[in-house]
Design brief:
The complex is a heterodimer of chains A (about 160) and B (about 425). By secondary structure, chain A is an alpha+beta fold. Chain A has seven helices and four strands; from the N terminus they run H-H-H-H-E-H-H-E-E-E-H. In chain A, strands 2-1-3-4 form a four-stranded mixed beta sheet, covered by helices on one side. With about 425 residues, chain B is α/β, with parallel strands linked by helices. Chain B has three domains: about 20-230, NADH-ubiquinone oxidoreductase 51kDa subunit (Rossmann fold, 3-Layer(aba) Sandwich); about 240-325, Roll (Ubiquitin-like (UB roll)), CATH 3.10.20; about 330-420, NADH-ubiquinone oxidoreductase 51kDa subunit, iron-sulphur binding domain (de novo design (two linked rop proteins)). Chain B contains 17 helices and eight strands. Chain B has helices at about 20-25, 30-35, 40-50, 60-65, 95-100, 100-115, 130-145, 175-185, 210-225, 225-230, 265-270, 305-310, 330-340, 350-365, 370-385, 395-405, 410-420, and strands at about 80-85, 120-125, 160-165, 205-210, 240-245, 255-260, 280-285, 320-325. A four-stranded parallel beta sheet of chain B has the order 3-2-1-4, sandwiched between helices. In chain B, strands 6-5-8-7 form a four-stranded mixed beta sheet, covered by helices on one side. In chain B, helix 5 crosses helix 6 (about 100-115) and helix 14 runs antiparallel to helix 15 (about 370-385). The longest helix of chain B is centred in the C-terminal third of the chain and has 18 residues, at about 350-365. Classes of the chains: A alpha+beta (about 160), B alpha/beta (about 425). Chains A and B meet through helix 2 and helix 5 of A and strand 8 and helix 13 of B.
Chain lengths: ~160, ~425
């Protein structure tokens, strides 16, 4: 269920634009924030708050890269797979990440801690190869650096 | 050498707050414009400056503004939108400008909105730019508190509301009309033109969409004049430009240099040349959707006309370097995979040809290519040519592909003949 606070935030977004439709992306992001993703049930609830059809919202949810319609782990690892990071050897790092986590792109670790996703150029080409975990950007990546970043995140959970 | 855009920017330090920005001369251009210039006079100064859009297409900014209906007959509200959805692979210049000096962008946006008499402005920011978002929000609040934004700005009678809108993520959001659809809460597919956004844009109202770097130039033009700005350029274009380099160079980064600085200077003097053990093979000069250039083109000036004259485009001015230890076929396969994934699927040449081209390139790269595939790729480029699509995504994707087929033909052939990528361990 959407909390009262979330419903209030969504209503506030609606007030910022001349029509309700414009608030859809932000409303979905608000719903996703605490849950990590947008389930069918959540989608229906957001639709109800906005007074729109679930299908109208799903058209938007399925278009944008950062609205998730399937569950994700506690941390989402976005690996930049664009050209500058490719030149600087992101493929080797991705292999390292996949072996270490035991998952491939698009999957979530069994303990629900990490989801691995590709992302277009993060605008960090000067510090390539780069990745983002949740809201933090990491550059100049090496296998060792990735190990210590992941270790810190795992430690934080324990 | 003057570097107006980056004069306040100290990488890895906090940007100037309102006080510091004002102390460096900030918001003086706004005071000047609101106090002594009509909107048309601001427009004229920008027209005379010959400022060209820094988002990649290079359209004259003043000319773009001049199509906005002015006066009492115009439908309202009018909108000014900052395109801060930087997502062109290899491009990282707007991030520096926003993070390093957010008030410069805000001042540029207020001046530009004043010039077209817009009442509402949106900053359409890329989701991944978290630091930029926080700093912009702080700067907007500071500007509101100081009455640079809001009602009756500095007693001039002019009113402007600004809000920050964070994208839900898609390359198409950076396309002018795709951005309008995204802001309206629709799928970010392009719109047919005409009507142009200046007449019928956001919610059908007159709208101008300008890139971050474009707007950052405006305060300086207003303050110091069109002639000063024109003289900043070293070639045919006015002003300075943020140029960048990434790939196997010694010092990847960004530098504000005169428009028309030769590629060789940027590559050798500023980027420090190639890393030890790597040789230069080629480059794409301005983000993923520009044609490859070779060593013979290195004395080309980085301005819109000169780069076009040698068969590529200035684009975003951030170059991506191909070295001798990197496979050109692999590089193009990577680029086309990006474009195929980000295509919105709205029109057929883009939706169908991009995945086909990406798969064909992947086949060649992994040793499964045939001679016929080269003809298929040439056919894809023709199918994605300008004029066949709603927007510039597919024609842009065809640029690195068509030039790679021209310049790295032998490398493609070696993949096919040897049935493997010569750059990968057998």
């Amino acid at each position: 269920m959407l909390t009262t606070e979330e419903q209030r935030e969504i209503a506030e977004e609606v007030g910022r634009y001349p029509n309700t439709m414009a608030a859809i992306p932000e409303a979905l992001k608000i719903a996703q924030r605490a849950r990590g993703w947008v389930s069918d049930e959540t989608l229906r609830e957001v639709a109800e708050v906005l007074g729109m059809l679930p299908a109208e919202l799903d058209a938007i949810a399925t278009f944008y890269n950062l609205i998730f319609r399937r569950p994700v782990g506690k941390h989402v690892i976005f690996v930049c797979d664009s050209v500058s990071c490719w030149i600087m050897g992101y493929e080797d790092l991705l292999r390292h990440l996949q072996v270490k986590l035991g998952i491939t792109m698009g999957e979530t670790t069994r303990d629900g801690l990490f989801t691995l996703l590709p992302i277009a150029c993060l605008g960090a080409c000067d510090i390539a190869p780069a990745m983002m975990i949740d809201e933090t950007l990491y550059g100049h990546l090496t296998a060792e650096k990735i190990d210590s970043i992941l270790a810190a995140l795992i430690h934080e959970t324990d | 050498m003057e570097a107006p855009l980056t004069r306040n920017i100290r990488p890895n330090e906090m940007p100037p707050d309102l006080k510091a920005y004002e102390k460096s001369g900030g918001y003086q251009a706004l005071r000047k414009a609101l106090g002594t210039m009509t909107p048309m006079e601001v427009q004229k100064e920008v027209v005379d400056s010959q400022l060209r859009g820094r988002g990649g297409a290079g359209f004259l900014t003043g000319l773009k503004w001049s199509f906005v209906p002015m006066g009492t007959e115009s439908r309202r509200p009018k909108y000014l939108i900052v395109n801060a959805d930087e997502m062109e692979p290899g491009t990282f210049k707007d991030r520096l400008l926003i993070e390093g000096d957010p008030h410069q962008l805000i001042e540029g946006l207020i001046l530009s909105a004043y010039a077209i008499q817009a009442e509402i402005a949106y900053i359409f920011l890329r989701w991944a730019y978290k630091t930029a978002g926080r700093r912009l929000q702080t700067a907007i609040e500071e500007a509101q508190a100081a009455n640079y934004l809001g009602r009756n700005i500095l007693g001039s009678g002019y009113c402007l509301d600004v809000s920050l809108h964070t994208s839900a993520g898609r390359y198409m959001c950076g396309e002018e009309t795709g951005l309008l659809n995204a802001l309206e809460g629709r799928r970010a597919v392009p719109r047919a033109k005409p009507p142009y956004p200046q007449v019928c844009g956001l919610w059908g109202k007159p709208t101008v969409v300008n890139n971050v770097e474009t707007l950052c130039n405006v305060p300086h033009i207003v303050e110091r004049g069109a002639t000063w700005f024109q003289r900043l350029g070293a070639g045919k274009d006015s002003g300075t430009k943020l140029f960048g380099a990434s790939g196997r160079v010694k010092r990847p980064g960004l530098w504000e240099l005169p428009m028309g600085t030769p590629i060789r200077d940027i590559l050798e003097e500023y980027a420090g040349g190639m890393q030890n053990g790597y040789r230069f093979r080629g480059l794409i000069p301005g983000g993923a959707s520009t044609d490859f250039l070779l060593e013979t083109h290195l004395d080309t000036k980085m301005d819109f006309e000169a780069v076009t004259a040698v068969g590529s485009r200035l684009g975003t001015g951030t170059m991506i370097i191909l070295d001798n230890r990197t496979c050109p076929v692999g590089m193009v396969a990577n680029l086309l995979t990006f474009f195929a994934r980000e295509s919105c699927g709205w029109c057929t040449p883009c939706r169908d040809n991009l995945p086909w081209a990406a798969q064909t390139l992947a086949a060649i790269e992994t040793g499964r290519g045939t001679d016929e595939d080269l003809e298929i790729l040439a056919f894809q480029c023709r199918m994605m040519a300008p004029g066949r699509t709603f927007c510039a995504l597919a024609p842009g994707a065809a640029e690195p592909l068509q030039s790679a087929l021209k310049y790295f033909r032998e490398d493609f052939q070696r993949h096919i003949d040897q049935r493997r990528c010569p750059w990968r361990q057998p």
